[in-house]
Design a protein that fits this description.
The structure is a single chain. About 20% of the residues are buried. It is built from five helices and 21 strands. The strands form three sheets. Strands 2-11-14-13-12-15 form a six-stranded antiparallel barrel. It has about 400 residues and is of the alpha+beta class. It folds into four domains: about 80 residues, conserved putative lor/sdh protein from methanococcus maripaludis s2 fold (Beta Barrel), CATH 2.40.420; about 100 residues, Elongation Factor Tu (Ef-tu), domain 3 (Beta Barrel); about 55 residues, no CATH class; about 80 residues, Helix Hairpins (Orthogonal Bundle), CATH 1.10.287. About 25% of the residues lie in helices and about 35% in strands.
């Protein structure tokens, strides 16, 4: 019975399923598909460059040298009697440093003085003989040949007196040289010889008794590369900055333990050629050192007047990006679209950097949110103002 019913009604079960599928398809066609929403433009902070009067200072590494440095040597030989200074102290020009036994030289001085007196007596006798000869020649008692001989004797006596005087001066100098005095004011080094030693005059290194270096003022030497030399030369030609050869341009020094450039000086020398081995030119500045803090041989940072004052565009370093060798910033145009702008940077002033080329004062620069922007992207800008802290 059941089997016969299934054979007689095959569409009883398929019709409801067909109607359900039809209605489901119709509903899908009538329901609108959801539309994709556009992403919200990222928010970034923008600002125009800060316009400010600035002065460029170029930085170098320098080394301090004494303006005057003297190797103290003996000018006569003899036994050293005394050392009259404290090693490492300041000595003044003319201070007595060493005393050499002067007795042999005083004896020579006494001898030369005696020889001078003898020469003077001989000259006096020659003058008297000449006077008598001239009187006798007038009375024709003495021949002319004898008169000429007396004149020659006087001339020889005069020469002998002059030679004796010269020997006396030389002997006096030898006696004076037994007292070795400081030729300059400065700090003296240790003594290389002690009392009782025989010292000899000469220019060998073994004859150096000690050294003295001046401290106030003091020199700082530094070198500039060829590009810097050309830069300074062109500024001098343009009239924007005079050459340090002719103008005492200001410099400032900073020691290893200092944060600021605290020591002031000025340029006083620039060399006449570029060193072929290093490609640099040497310059020198003179720096006051009243507290004697600067010591010859120290390394120091040197800040030399470069250019200015002039009006410059300034940006924080955090807004400047680096692509291999090129520096660039992100600029937002009037449609809030981001573009990349290649720039040339200058010196740093406080916490900001000079922009030499590539920007205008009206450009809107991304200064915060750089990691969220891409070239051609639209952004939501928030206006800000660049301020400097130093």
């Amino acid at each position: 019975m059941i089997a016969s019913i299934r054979k007689q009604n095959p569409g009883v079960y398929s019709l409801p399923l067909f109607l359900f599928m039809f209605l489901l398809t119709a509903c899908e066609k009538d329901t609108p598909a959801p539309q994709a929403q556009e992403p919200t433009p990222p928010t970034v902070t923008i600002a125009t460059p800060l316009i400010q009067q600035v002065t460029d200072w170029d930085e170098f590494t320098g080394r301090l040298y004494a303006c005057e440095s003297v190797e103290v040597r003996p000018r006569v030989s003899g036994y050293l009697e005394s050392v009259n200074f404290t090693e490492g102290r300041i000595v003044n020009k003319g201070d007595l440093l060493y005393v050499i036994d002067a007795r042999p030289y005083k004896a020579v001085l006494d001898q030369t003085k005696a020889e001078l007196e003898k020469a003077k007596a001989t000259l006096q006798l020659a003058e008297n003989d000449l006077a008598r000869a001239e009187r006798l020649f007038k009375t024709r008692v003495m021949p002319e040949e004898e008169l000429d001989s007396r004149r020659s004797q006087k001339s020889a006596a005069i020469a002998s007196v002059q030679a004796a005087k010269a020997r006396v001066v030389a002997a006096e100098l030898d006696v004076e040289f037994t007292q070795i005095k400081a030729p300059i004011t400065g700090r003296i080094s240790r003594t290389n010889v002690t009392e009782g030693n025989l010292i000899k005059d000469g220019d060998n290194d073994s004859n150096i008794l000690t050294t003295i270096v001046s401290l106030d003022p003091i020199y700082v030497y530094f070198t500039a590369d060829e590009q810097a030399v050309l830069h300074y030369s062109r500024m001098d030609m343009e009239g924007s900055r005079e050459s340090s050869r002719t103008t005492p341009n200001p410099v400032y020094l900073r020691l290893a333990d200092e944060e600021e450039y605290m020591h002031e000086g000025h340029m006083d020398f620039v060399d006449n050629q570029i060193d072929m081995s290093t490609g640099t030119m040497r310059g020198r500045a003179l720096v006051d050192n009243p507290d004697l803090l600067l010591v010859p041989g120290m390394f120091t940072d040197v800040k030399l007047l470069g250019k200015g004052p002039y009006e410059a565009l300034l940006l924080p370093d955090s807004a400047i990006n680096l692509d291999q060798t090129k520096r660039f910033v992100y600029v937002v145009d009037e449609n809030n679209i981001v573009e990349r702008r290649i720039i040339k940077i200058g010196n740093k002033h406080g916490d900001l950097r000079v922009i030499r080329d590539g920007l205008n004062k009206e450009d809107r620069i991304v200064i915060n949110g750089l990691q969220r922007v891409r070239i051609g992207m639209k952004v939501t800008p928030e206006e800000s103002v660049i301020e400097t802290k130093g």
